[in-house]
């Protein structure tokens, strides 16, 4: 997958390197707009660059998470006319580890222990961690401070999804929707997804310091989540 087709191209333009190790990023949207799909595309972009990734799901089983990846991969194969699909699929499966924390069983200590075990016992050292399903409305600042320390300790970048329950951007301002706004100082990159009649609009609400691209928008195909244009 190229940066031309990936929703990450807005982040590449923002900083030249995307989120970066030791940093936190978040995808904010209302229910049903495509937060998980966007996270999986971010993950897929990493995996297809031969990077290793841990996907931590707080809501879905490993089987369901795997199905998300399989569906999106199939759509990418068709949309991009990929001819080496089998090799790419093997690469994705090899470099991805799925951890599920169901029934409110997640805490940072468990994740830290899981990461240590993956490194020490099977030699799996991730470059990126995806955290899907964390309830920002019930979370305190302490957990994100803990994630920031974890990102620095393990030298990884960490991506979250956040359900928007407050204001939505009006297309002109870069107001961060609640409840993610309470923790904005801890995130290096904040992107928002909004539905339009024919696409999903991805907007950069917060970028790395000095970014001149706040408010930059990318239109995503609602089926494939590939960037248009």
Describe the structure concisely.
The chain has 229 residues and is α/β, with parallel strands linked by helices. 34% of the residues lie in helices and 20% in strands. It has one domain (9-220): P-loop containing nucleotide triphosphate hydrolases (Rossmann fold, 3-Layer(aba) Sandwich), CATH 3.40.50.
CATH class: Alpha Beta
Number of helices: 6
- Overall pLDDT level: 88
- Structural category is alpha/beta
Record field, number of beta strands: 8
Helix content: 25-40%
What separation lies between the terminal Cα atoms? 15 Å
Sequence stretches where pLDDT stays below 50 over 5 or more residues: 168-172
CATH superfamily: P-loop containing nucleotide triphosphate hydrolases
Indicate the CATH topology: Rossmann fold
Radius of gyration: 17 Å
From the spread of the alpha carbons, the general shape counts as globular
Main sheet: strands, sense, barrel: 8 strands, mixed
What would CATH call the architecture?
3-Layer(aba) Sandwich
SS strand fraction: 15-25%
Helix and strand element order: HEHEHHEHEHEEEE
| Arrangement of strands in the largest sheet | 3-2-4-5-1-6-7-8
Question: How many separate structural domains?
Answer: 1
